[in-house]
Protein backbone atom coordinates (compact mmCIF):
# COMPACT_ATOMS: atom_id res chain seq x y z
CA UNK A 1 0.00 0.00 0.00
CA UNK A 2 2.77 2.37 1.03
CA UNK A 3 4.65 1.53 -2.10
CA UNK A 4 1.61 2.38 -4.24
CA UNK A 5 1.22 5.68 -2.41
CA UNK A 6 4.87 6.44 -3.01
CA UNK A 7 4.54 5.63 -6.72
CA UNK A 8 1.47 7.82 -7.09
CA UNK A 9 3.27 10.68 -5.37
CA UNK A 10 6.28 10.26 -7.63
CA UNK A 11 4.10 10.29 -10.74
CA UNK A 12 2.35 13.42 -9.58
CA UNK A 13 5.73 15.12 -9.51
CA UNK A 14 5.86 14.86 -13.29
CA UNK A 15 6.99 18.16 -14.74
CA UNK A 16 7.26 18.76 -18.45
CA UNK A 17 8.04 21.81 -20.46
CA UNK A 18 7.47 23.31 -23.86
CA UNK A 19 10.56 25.29 -24.78
CA UNK A 20 10.16 26.97 -28.15
CA UNK A 21 12.78 29.23 -29.67
CA UNK A 22 11.01 32.40 -30.81
CA UNK A 23 12.52 32.46 -34.27
CA UNK A 24 9.48 31.71 -36.40
CA UNK A 25 5.87 30.69 -36.42
CA UNK A 26 4.22 28.39 -33.94
CA UNK A 27 3.38 25.63 -36.42
CA UNK A 28 1.85 22.16 -36.43
CA UNK A 29 5.18 20.52 -35.53
CA UNK A 30 5.78 22.66 -32.45
CA UNK A 31 2.14 22.35 -31.41
CA UNK A 32 2.54 18.59 -31.41
CA UNK A 33 5.52 18.82 -29.04
CA UNK A 34 3.57 21.20 -26.82
CA UNK A 35 0.48 19.00 -26.85
CA UNK A 36 2.36 15.79 -26.01
CA UNK A 37 4.21 17.52 -23.15
CA UNK A 38 1.00 19.10 -21.87
CA UNK A 39 -0.96 15.84 -22.07
CA UNK A 40 1.75 13.88 -20.33
CA UNK A 41 1.75 16.36 -17.45
CA UNK A 42 -2.04 16.46 -17.28
CA UNK A 43 -2.30 12.66 -17.40
CA UNK A 44 -0.15 12.38 -14.29
CA UNK A 45 -1.58 15.48 -12.58
CA UNK A 46 1.84 17.01 -12.85
CA UNK A 47 2.98 20.41 -14.05
CA UNK A 48 3.54 21.87 -17.48
CA UNK A 49 5.78 24.87 -17.91
CA UNK A 50 6.38 27.28 -20.75
CA UNK A 51 9.90 28.49 -21.43
CA UNK A 52 10.86 30.82 -24.22
CA UNK A 53 14.39 30.02 -25.41
CA UNK A 54 15.38 33.45 -26.62
CA UNK A 55 19.14 33.62 -26.34
CA UNK A 56 19.66 33.67 -30.08
CA UNK A 57 19.35 37.44 -30.26
CA UNK A 58 20.02 37.62 -33.99
CA UNK A 59 17.15 35.32 -34.95
CA UNK A 60 14.82 36.56 -32.21
CA UNK A 61 11.42 37.63 -33.49
CA UNK A 62 9.07 39.33 -31.05
CA UNK A 63 6.07 38.44 -33.23
CA UNK A 64 6.97 34.84 -32.70
CA UNK A 65 6.63 35.20 -28.90
CA UNK A 66 3.18 36.69 -29.41
CA UNK A 67 2.20 33.87 -31.72
CA UNK A 68 3.42 31.27 -29.19
CA UNK A 69 1.51 32.78 -26.27
CA UNK A 70 -1.63 33.50 -28.24
CA UNK A 71 -1.57 30.15 -30.06
CA UNK A 72 -1.21 28.10 -26.88
CA UNK A 73 -3.99 30.06 -25.22
CA UNK A 74 -6.25 29.63 -28.23
CA UNK A 75 -5.67 25.87 -28.12
CA UNK A 76 -6.24 25.75 -24.36
CA UNK A 77 -2.76 24.38 -23.64
CA UNK A 78 -2.47 26.24 -20.37
CA UNK A 79 0.80 26.32 -18.49
CA UNK A 80 1.30 26.11 -14.72
CA UNK A 81 4.54 28.10 -14.60
CA UNK A 82 6.12 30.69 -16.81
CA UNK A 83 6.50 31.90 -19.40
CA UNK A 84 10.14 31.92 -18.38
CA UNK A 85 12.47 33.80 -20.71
CA UNK A 86 16.05 32.60 -20.97
CA UNK A 87 17.16 36.14 -21.74
CA UNK A 88 16.14 37.04 -18.19
CA UNK A 89 18.22 34.24 -16.65
CA UNK A 90 21.63 35.22 -18.03
CA UNK A 91 23.00 35.97 -14.54
CA UNK A 92 22.10 32.48 -13.38
CA UNK A 93 23.87 30.86 -16.37
CA UNK A 94 26.95 32.99 -15.78
CA UNK A 95 27.00 31.95 -12.14
CA UNK A 96 26.99 28.25 -13.10
CA UNK A 97 29.68 28.80 -15.75
CA UNK A 98 31.87 30.50 -13.16
CA UNK A 99 31.34 27.54 -10.84
CA UNK A 100 32.21 25.09 -13.59
CA UNK A 101 35.37 27.01 -14.47
CA UNK A 102 36.38 26.86 -10.82
CA UNK A 103 35.63 23.16 -10.47
CA UNK A 104 37.48 22.36 -13.70
CA UNK A 105 34.40 21.10 -15.54
CA UNK A 106 34.76 23.92 -18.03
CA UNK A 107 37.66 25.89 -19.46
CA UNK A 108 38.38 28.99 -21.47
CA UNK A 109 39.32 28.39 -25.08
CA UNK A 110 41.42 31.07 -26.77
CA UNK A 111 41.64 29.47 -30.20
CA UNK A 112 40.82 31.94 -32.92
CA UNK A 113 38.26 31.31 -35.63
CA UNK A 114 41.14 31.01 -38.09
CA UNK A 115 42.97 28.43 -35.96
CA UNK A 116 39.81 26.37 -35.59
CA UNK A 117 39.14 26.52 -39.31
CA UNK A 118 42.71 25.43 -40.14
CA UNK A 119 42.35 22.56 -37.72
CA UNK A 120 39.08 21.53 -39.35
CA UNK A 121 40.62 21.59 -42.84
CA UNK A 122 43.56 19.48 -41.65
CA UNK A 123 41.26 16.88 -40.13
CA UNK A 124 38.98 16.71 -43.16
CA UNK A 125 41.95 16.36 -45.53
CA UNK A 126 43.09 13.36 -43.48
CA UNK A 127 39.61 11.86 -43.79
CA UNK A 128 38.85 12.44 -40.12
CA UNK A 129 35.60 13.71 -38.63
CA UNK A 130 36.23 17.38 -37.69
CA UNK A 131 36.20 18.08 -33.98
CA UNK A 132 37.90 20.40 -31.54
CA UNK A 133 41.18 18.81 -30.47
CA UNK A 134 41.16 20.32 -27.01
CA UNK A 135 44.32 22.46 -27.24
CA UNK A 136 43.15 24.81 -24.48
CA UNK A 137 41.72 22.03 -22.31
CA UNK A 138 44.66 21.95 -19.95
CA UNK A 139 45.75 25.59 -19.85
CA UNK A 140 44.39 25.94 -16.31
CA UNK A 141 46.27 29.10 -15.47
CA UNK A 142 44.60 30.93 -18.35
CA UNK A 143 41.16 30.45 -16.77
CA UNK A 144 41.96 33.49 -14.67
CA UNK A 145 42.57 35.80 -17.59
CA UNK A 146 39.51 37.97 -18.00
CA UNK A 147 40.26 40.42 -20.78
CA UNK A 148 41.25 38.18 -23.64
CA UNK A 149 38.93 36.99 -26.34
CA UNK A 150 37.75 33.53 -25.41
CA UNK A 151 34.81 31.14 -25.37
CA UNK A 152 34.06 28.77 -22.51
CA UNK A 153 33.97 25.08 -23.32
CA UNK A 154 32.56 22.18 -21.37
CA UNK A 155 35.13 19.52 -20.54
CA UNK A 156 33.41 16.52 -22.06
CA UNK A 157 34.65 13.11 -20.85
CA UNK A 158 37.25 11.80 -23.30
CA UNK A 159 36.32 8.14 -23.11
CA UNK A 160 33.36 5.99 -22.21
CA UNK A 161 29.86 6.40 -23.47
CA UNK A 162 26.56 8.09 -22.74
CA UNK A 163 23.48 5.92 -22.81
CA UNK A 164 19.91 6.93 -22.24
CA UNK A 165 16.63 5.09 -22.48
CA UNK A 166 14.48 7.12 -24.82
CA UNK A 167 10.80 6.58 -24.03
CA UNK A 168 9.93 6.40 -27.71
CA UNK A 169 13.02 5.02 -29.39
CA UNK A 170 14.52 2.77 -26.69
CA UNK A 171 18.18 2.66 -25.72
CA UNK A 172 20.43 5.21 -27.43
CA UNK A 173 24.20 5.24 -26.96
CA UNK A 174 26.83 7.78 -27.98
CA UNK A 175 30.58 7.37 -27.62
CA UNK A 176 32.15 10.25 -25.73
CA UNK A 177 35.05 10.39 -28.14
CA UNK A 178 32.57 11.51 -30.79
CA UNK A 179 31.47 14.49 -28.75
CA UNK A 180 33.33 17.80 -28.90
CA UNK A 181 34.10 19.99 -25.95
CA UNK A 182 30.96 21.99 -26.36
CA UNK A 183 31.12 25.80 -26.31
CA UNK A 184 28.87 26.83 -23.42
CA UNK A 185 29.60 30.55 -23.50
CA UNK A 186 30.25 32.54 -26.65
CA UNK A 187 32.99 35.17 -26.91
CA UNK A 188 30.35 37.87 -26.36
CA UNK A 189 29.62 36.37 -22.93
CA UNK A 190 26.24 34.91 -23.90
CA UNK A 191 25.75 31.27 -22.94
CA UNK A 192 24.85 28.84 -25.71
CA UNK A 193 21.58 27.10 -26.33
CA UNK A 194 22.57 23.60 -25.14
CA UNK A 195 23.88 24.96 -21.88
CA UNK A 196 20.85 27.11 -21.06
CA UNK A 197 18.54 24.18 -21.72
CA UNK A 198 20.45 22.06 -19.24
CA UNK A 199 20.48 24.65 -16.48
CA UNK A 200 16.80 25.41 -17.00
CA UNK A 201 15.75 21.77 -17.01
CA UNK A 202 17.75 21.37 -13.82
CA UNK A 203 16.54 24.53 -12.03
CA UNK A 204 12.95 23.96 -13.11
CA UNK A 205 12.97 20.31 -11.94
CA UNK A 206 11.92 18.97 -15.30
CA UNK A 207 11.30 15.22 -15.07
CA UNK A 208 10.42 14.47 -18.70
CA UNK A 209 11.81 16.14 -21.78
CA UNK A 210 9.53 15.54 -24.75
CA UNK A 211 10.83 17.15 -27.94
CA UNK A 212 11.57 16.64 -31.63
CA UNK A 213 14.06 14.04 -32.83
CA UNK A 214 16.26 16.84 -34.19
CA UNK A 215 17.43 17.19 -30.59
CA UNK A 216 18.66 13.60 -30.16
CA UNK A 217 22.24 14.62 -30.89
CA UNK A 218 22.08 17.32 -28.22
CA UNK A 219 20.96 14.86 -25.57
CA UNK A 220 24.31 13.17 -24.77
CA UNK A 221 25.99 16.59 -24.48
CA UNK A 222 23.24 17.79 -22.17
CA UNK A 223 23.42 14.60 -20.09
CA UNK A 224 27.19 14.99 -19.69
CA UNK A 225 26.78 18.55 -18.43
CA UNK A 226 24.05 17.44 -16.01
CA UNK A 227 26.28 14.63 -14.78
CA UNK A 228 29.14 17.05 -14.17
CA UNK A 229 26.77 19.03 -11.97
CA UNK A 230 25.68 15.87 -10.12
CA UNK A 231 22.14 16.53 -11.28
CA UNK A 232 19.34 14.07 -11.81
CA UNK A 233 18.94 13.22 -15.50
CA UNK A 234 15.42 13.72 -16.84
CA UNK A 235 13.67 11.09 -18.92
CA UNK A 236 13.83 11.85 -22.65
CA UNK A 237 11.30 11.17 -25.38
CA UNK A 238 12.14 12.24 -28.92
CA UNK A 239 9.22 12.48 -31.28
CA UNK A 240 9.69 11.62 -34.97
CA UNK A 241 9.55 13.94 -37.91
CA UNK A 242 6.48 15.16 -39.71
CA UNK A 243 6.26 14.98 -43.48
CA UNK A 244 4.31 17.36 -45.66
CA UNK A 245 1.63 16.20 -48.06
CA UNK A 246 4.18 15.65 -50.84
CA UNK A 247 6.07 13.20 -48.66
CA UNK A 248 8.98 15.59 -48.04
CA UNK A 249 10.35 16.61 -44.71
CA UNK A 250 8.09 19.23 -43.15
CA UNK A 251 9.87 22.47 -43.81
CA UNK A 252 9.68 25.27 -41.31
CA UNK A 253 9.80 27.78 -44.09
CA UNK A 254 7.28 26.33 -46.52
CA UNK A 255 4.85 24.24 -44.50
CA UNK A 256 4.97 25.97 -41.17
CA UNK A 257 1.74 27.85 -41.34
CA UNK A 258 1.31 29.95 -38.22
CA UNK A 259 -1.19 28.22 -35.96
CA UNK A 260 -3.16 31.44 -35.79
CA UNK A 261 -3.84 31.18 -39.51
CA UNK A 262 -5.87 28.07 -38.76
CA UNK A 263 -7.87 30.09 -36.27
CA UNK A 264 -8.47 32.80 -38.89
CA UNK A 265 -9.44 30.16 -41.44
CA UNK A 266 -12.18 28.88 -39.18
CA UNK A 267 -10.71 25.76 -37.63
CA UNK A 268 -11.70 24.80 -34.11
CA UNK A 269 -9.08 24.22 -31.41
CA UNK A 270 -10.72 20.86 -30.67
CA UNK A 271 -10.28 19.74 -34.28
CA UNK A 272 -6.72 20.94 -34.46
CA UNK A 273 -5.71 19.21 -31.23
CA UNK A 274 -7.42 16.01 -32.33
CA UNK A 275 -5.59 16.25 -35.64
CA UNK A 276 -2.23 16.97 -34.05
CA UNK A 277 -2.41 14.21 -31.43
CA UNK A 278 -2.87 11.66 -34.21
CA UNK A 279 0.31 12.80 -35.97
CA UNK A 280 2.35 10.00 -34.47
CA UNK A 281 0.16 8.79 -31.61
CA UNK A 282 -2.64 6.27 -31.75
CA UNK A 283 -5.00 4.36 -29.54
CA UNK A 284 -6.40 1.42 -31.47
CA UNK A 285 -8.47 2.59 -34.41
CA UNK A 286 -10.02 5.50 -32.58
CA UNK A 287 -9.98 8.75 -34.58
CA UNK A 288 -12.03 11.13 -32.44
CA UNK A 289 -10.67 12.17 -29.06
CA UNK A 290 -12.19 14.73 -26.76
CA UNK A 291 -9.70 16.72 -24.67
CA UNK A 292 -10.57 14.74 -21.55
CA UNK A 293 -10.11 11.46 -23.42
CA UNK A 294 -6.75 12.67 -24.66
CA UNK A 295 -5.67 13.42 -21.10
CA UNK A 296 -6.87 10.06 -19.90
CA UNK A 297 -5.44 7.93 -22.70
CA UNK A 298 -2.19 9.69 -23.58
CA UNK A 299 0.82 7.50 -23.12
CA UNK A 300 4.36 8.01 -24.42
CA UNK A 301 4.62 4.32 -25.28
CA UNK A 302 1.94 4.70 -27.91
CA UNK A 303 3.91 7.31 -29.84
CA UNK A 304 5.11 5.89 -33.11
CA UNK A 305 8.80 5.74 -33.97
CA UNK A 306 8.06 6.33 -37.63
CA UNK A 307 7.31 9.67 -39.19
CA UNK A 308 3.83 10.88 -39.86
CA UNK A 309 2.42 12.97 -42.68
CA UNK A 310 0.15 15.97 -42.51
CA UNK A 311 -3.16 15.69 -44.35
CA UNK A 312 -5.36 18.73 -44.82
CA UNK A 313 -8.18 16.42 -45.88
CA UNK A 314 -8.14 14.82 -42.45
CA UNK A 315 -8.08 18.19 -40.73
CA UNK A 316 -11.09 19.37 -42.76
CA UNK A 317 -12.92 16.16 -41.93
CA UNK A 318 -12.25 16.57 -38.21
CA UNK A 319 -13.23 20.21 -38.26
CA UNK A 320 -16.56 19.41 -39.88
CA UNK A 321 -17.08 16.66 -37.32
CA UNK A 322 -16.53 19.07 -34.40
CA UNK A 323 -18.63 21.84 -35.97
CA UNK A 324 -21.47 19.34 -36.13
CA UNK A 325 -20.97 17.68 -32.78
CA UNK A 326 -19.99 20.36 -30.27
CA UNK A 327 -22.82 22.34 -28.64
CA UNK A 328 -24.54 24.71 -31.03
CA UNK A 329 -24.25 27.68 -28.69
CA UNK A 330 -20.46 27.19 -28.41
CA UNK A 331 -19.97 26.96 -32.18
CA UNK A 332 -22.26 29.89 -32.83
CA UNK A 333 -20.28 32.00 -30.40
CA UNK A 334 -17.09 31.23 -32.32
CA UNK A 335 -18.87 31.84 -35.60
CA UNK A 336 -19.73 35.38 -34.46
CA UNK A 337 -16.06 36.38 -34.76
CA UNK A 338 -15.97 35.17 -38.33
CA UNK A 339 -19.19 37.01 -39.13
CA UNK A 340 -17.64 40.17 -37.72
CA UNK A 341 -14.54 39.56 -39.73
CA UNK A 342 -16.66 39.24 -42.89
CA UNK A 343 -18.35 42.49 -41.81
CA UNK A 344 -21.79 40.85 -41.76
CA UNK A 345 -24.21 42.68 -39.49
CA UNK A 346 -26.08 40.09 -37.46
CA UNK A 347 -28.77 42.57 -36.53
CA UNK A 348 -30.04 42.53 -40.13
CA UNK A 349 -31.12 38.92 -40.23
CA UNK A 350 -32.13 35.70 -38.50
CA UNK A 351 -30.58 34.47 -35.28
CA UNK A 352 -27.17 32.93 -35.85
CA UNK A 353 -27.95 29.55 -34.29
CA UNK A 354 -30.72 28.93 -36.84
CA UNK A 355 -28.43 29.83 -39.72
CA UNK A 356 -25.70 27.63 -38.28
CA UNK A 357 -28.11 24.68 -37.92
CA UNK A 358 -28.94 25.00 -41.57
CA UNK A 359 -25.40 25.39 -42.88
CA UNK A 360 -23.18 23.39 -40.53
CA UNK A 361 -23.44 20.11 -42.38
CA UNK A 362 -22.49 21.70 -45.68
CA UNK A 363 -19.13 23.23 -44.82
CA UNK A 364 -15.78 22.35 -43.30
CA UNK A 365 -14.80 25.60 -41.58
CA UNK A 366 -16.43 28.46 -39.71
CA UNK A 367 -15.04 30.87 -42.27
CA UNK A 368 -16.84 29.01 -45.06
CA UNK A 369 -20.06 29.07 -43.04
CA UNK A 370 -19.72 32.81 -42.41
CA UNK A 371 -19.03 33.52 -46.06
CA UNK A 372 -21.94 31.47 -47.31
CA UNK A 373 -24.42 32.96 -44.87
CA UNK A 374 -24.20 36.49 -46.24
CA UNK A 375 -27.49 36.35 -48.16
CA UNK A 376 -29.40 35.90 -44.90
CA UNK A 377 -28.22 39.31 -43.73
CA UNK A 378 -27.59 41.39 -46.83
CA UNK A 379 -28.97 41.92 -50.28
CA UNK A 380 -26.61 40.47 -52.85
CA UNK A 381 -25.47 42.82 -55.57
CA UNK A 382 -25.74 40.65 -58.67
CA UNK A 383 -27.08 37.31 -59.75
CA UNK A 384 -24.43 34.81 -60.70
CA UNK A 385 -24.21 35.16 -64.49
CA UNK A 386 -24.57 31.52 -65.51
CA UNK A 387 -27.27 30.89 -62.87
CA UNK A 388 -29.24 33.86 -64.18
CA UNK A 389 -28.75 32.72 -67.79
CA UNK A 390 -30.18 29.35 -66.94
CA UNK A 391 -32.99 30.24 -64.57
CA UNK A 392 -34.00 33.90 -64.82
CA UNK A 393 -35.51 33.49 -68.26
CA UNK A 394 -38.84 34.62 -69.74
CA UNK A 395 -40.42 31.15 -69.52
CA UNK A 396 -40.01 31.23 -65.73
CA UNK A 397 -41.58 34.67 -65.39
CA UNK A 398 -45.04 33.33 -64.58
CA UNK A 399 -43.67 30.90 -61.97
CA UNK A 400 -42.14 33.78 -60.04
CA UNK A 401 -45.24 35.92 -60.34
CA UNK A 402 -47.31 33.06 -59.04
CA UNK A 403 -44.91 32.46 -56.14
CA UNK A 404 -44.94 36.15 -55.29
CA UNK A 405 -48.72 36.19 -55.13
CA UNK A 406 -48.96 33.05 -53.00
CA UNK A 407 -46.16 33.92 -50.60
CA UNK A 408 -47.66 37.35 -50.06
CA UNK A 409 -50.88 35.66 -48.92
CA UNK A 410 -49.24 33.48 -46.26
CA UNK A 411 -50.42 34.36 -42.78
CA UNK A 412 -48.56 31.71 -40.74
CA UNK A 413 -44.90 32.03 -41.60
CA UNK A 414 -43.44 28.54 -41.07
CA UNK A 415 -41.21 26.09 -42.82
CA UNK A 416 -44.13 23.67 -43.26
CA UNK A 417 -46.43 26.28 -44.87
CA UNK A 418 -43.66 27.29 -47.27
CA UNK A 419 -42.83 23.72 -48.11
CA UNK A 420 -46.43 22.82 -48.97
CA UNK A 421 -46.90 26.07 -50.90
CA UNK A 422 -43.92 25.22 -53.10
CA UNK A 423 -45.15 21.64 -53.61
CA UNK A 424 -48.65 22.86 -54.55
CA UNK A 425 -47.22 25.32 -57.06
CA UNK A 426 -45.24 22.49 -58.63
CA UNK A 427 -48.40 20.47 -59.17
CA UNK A 428 -50.43 23.45 -60.33
CA UNK A 429 -47.82 24.73 -62.76
CA UNK A 430 -46.66 21.28 -63.84
CA UNK A 431 -43.02 21.82 -63.02
CA UNK A 432 -40.60 19.67 -61.05
CA UNK A 433 -39.70 20.38 -57.45
CA UNK A 434 -36.07 20.55 -58.50
CA UNK A 435 -36.72 23.22 -61.09
CA UNK A 436 -38.70 25.44 -58.73
CA UNK A 437 -36.14 24.97 -55.95
CA UNK A 438 -33.24 25.93 -58.21
CA UNK A 439 -35.12 28.91 -59.49
CA UNK A 440 -35.88 30.07 -55.95
CA UNK A 441 -32.26 29.59 -54.95
CA UNK A 442 -31.12 31.94 -57.70
CA UNK A 443 -33.82 34.43 -56.73
CA UNK A 444 -33.04 34.40 -53.01
CA UNK A 445 -29.31 33.79 -52.85
CA UNK A 446 -28.11 34.90 -56.26
CA UNK A 447 -26.67 31.44 -56.92
CA UNK A 448 -27.63 27.80 -57.22
CA UNK A 449 -26.22 26.56 -53.93
CA UNK A 450 -28.18 26.58 -50.70
CA UNK A 451 -29.73 24.22 -48.18
CA UNK A 452 -33.41 23.22 -48.34
CA UNK A 453 -35.08 26.15 -50.04
CA UNK A 454 -38.13 26.32 -47.75
CA UNK A 455 -35.82 26.64 -44.73
CA UNK A 456 -33.86 29.37 -46.48
CA UNK A 457 -37.02 31.31 -47.32
CA UNK A 458 -38.26 30.85 -43.79
CA UNK A 459 -35.10 32.35 -42.29
CA UNK A 460 -34.82 35.17 -44.81
CA UNK A 461 -38.35 36.23 -43.83
CA UNK A 462 -41.44 37.30 -45.75
CA UNK A 463 -40.54 40.89 -46.44
CA UNK A 464 -37.08 40.21 -47.84
CA UNK A 465 -38.31 37.20 -49.81
CA UNK A 466 -40.97 39.29 -51.55
CA UNK A 467 -38.44 42.00 -52.29
CA UNK A 468 -36.04 39.53 -53.88
CA UNK A 469 -38.83 37.94 -55.90
CA UNK A 470 -39.74 41.40 -57.17
CA UNK A 471 -36.12 42.06 -58.08
CA UNK A 472 -35.94 38.79 -60.06
CA UNK A 473 -39.23 39.49 -61.81
CA UNK A 474 -37.91 42.92 -62.82
CA UNK A 475 -34.69 41.33 -64.01
CA UNK A 476 -36.66 39.06 -66.34
CA UNK A 477 -38.89 41.99 -67.40
CA UNK A 478 -35.78 43.83 -68.52
CA UNK A 479 -34.55 40.77 -70.37
CA UNK A 480 -37.89 40.56 -72.20
CA UNK A 481 -37.72 44.27 -73.04
CA UNK A 482 -34.22 43.86 -74.43
CA UNK A 483 -35.28 40.91 -76.57
CA UNK A 484 -38.24 42.90 -77.96
CA UNK A 485 -36.06 45.90 -78.73
N1 LIG B 1 14.20 25.55 -28.21
C1 LIG B 1 14.23 24.30 -28.89
C2 LIG B 1 13.44 24.38 -30.19
O1 LIG B 1 12.60 25.25 -30.34
C3 LIG B 1 13.69 23.16 -28.06
C4 LIG B 1 14.64 22.74 -27.01
C5 LIG B 1 14.25 21.58 -26.19
O2 LIG B 1 13.08 21.17 -26.24
O3 LIG B 1 15.09 21.05 -25.51
O4 LIG B 1 13.63 23.56 -31.04
Average pLDDT level: 92
Query: How many helical stretches?
Result: 21
Shape: elongated
Q: What would you report as the Rg, rounded to the nearest angstrom?
A: 32 Å
Distance between the termini: 98 Å
- List low-pLDDT spans: none
Strand content: 5-15%
Structural notes for this entry:
The chain is mainly α and about 475 residues long. It is built from 21 helices and 12 strands. The chain has helices at about 1-10, 30-45, 60-75, 90-105, 115-125, 195-205, 220-230, 260-265, 270-275, 290-295, 310-325, 330-340, 350-360, 365-370, 375, 385-390, 395-410, 415-430, 435-445, 455-460, 460-485, and strands at about 15-20, 45-50, 80-85, 105-110, 150-155, 160-165, 170-175, 185, 210, 235-240, 240-245, 310. Strands 1-2-3 form a 3-stranded parallel sheet, covered by helices on one side. Strand 1, helix 2 and strand 2 (about 45-50) form a beta-alpha-beta unit. Helix 17 runs antiparallel to helix 18 (about 415-430). The model has no long low-confidence stretch (mean pLDDT about 90).
What descriptive keywords fit this protein?
485 residues; binds glutamic acid
Summarize the SSE layout with pairings.
Blueprint: H1 2-12, E1 15-18, H2 28-43, E2 47-52, H3 62-75, E3 81-85, H4 90-103, E4 106-109, H5 113-125, E5 151-154, E6 161-166, E7 170-175, E8 183-185, H6 193-203, E9 208-212, H7 218-228, E10 235-239, E11 242-243, H8 259-264, H9 269-277, H10 291-297, E12 308-309, H11 312-325, H12 328-341, H13 352-359, H14 366-372, H15 374-377, H16 385-391, H17 397-409, H18 415-429, H19 433-445, H20 453-460, H21 462-484
Parallel strand pairs: 1-2, 2-3, 9-10, 11-12
Antiparallel strand pairs: 4-5, 5-8, 6-7
The structure holds glutamic acid (GLU).
The site of glutamic acid has 7 residues, from loops.
Amino acid sequence: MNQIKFLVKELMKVKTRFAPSPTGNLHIGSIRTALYSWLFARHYHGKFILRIEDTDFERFDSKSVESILYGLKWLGLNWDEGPYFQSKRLERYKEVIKMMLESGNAYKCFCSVKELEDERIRQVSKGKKPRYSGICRNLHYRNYIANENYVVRFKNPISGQVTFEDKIRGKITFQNEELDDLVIQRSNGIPTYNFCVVIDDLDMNITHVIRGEDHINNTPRQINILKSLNAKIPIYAHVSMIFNEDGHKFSKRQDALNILEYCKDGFLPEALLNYVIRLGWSCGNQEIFSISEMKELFDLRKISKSSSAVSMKKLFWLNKYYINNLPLSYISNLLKDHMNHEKINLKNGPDLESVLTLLKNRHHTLKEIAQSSRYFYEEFANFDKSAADEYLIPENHFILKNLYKNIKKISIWSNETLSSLIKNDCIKLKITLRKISMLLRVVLTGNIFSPSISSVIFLIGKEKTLLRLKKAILFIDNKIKNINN
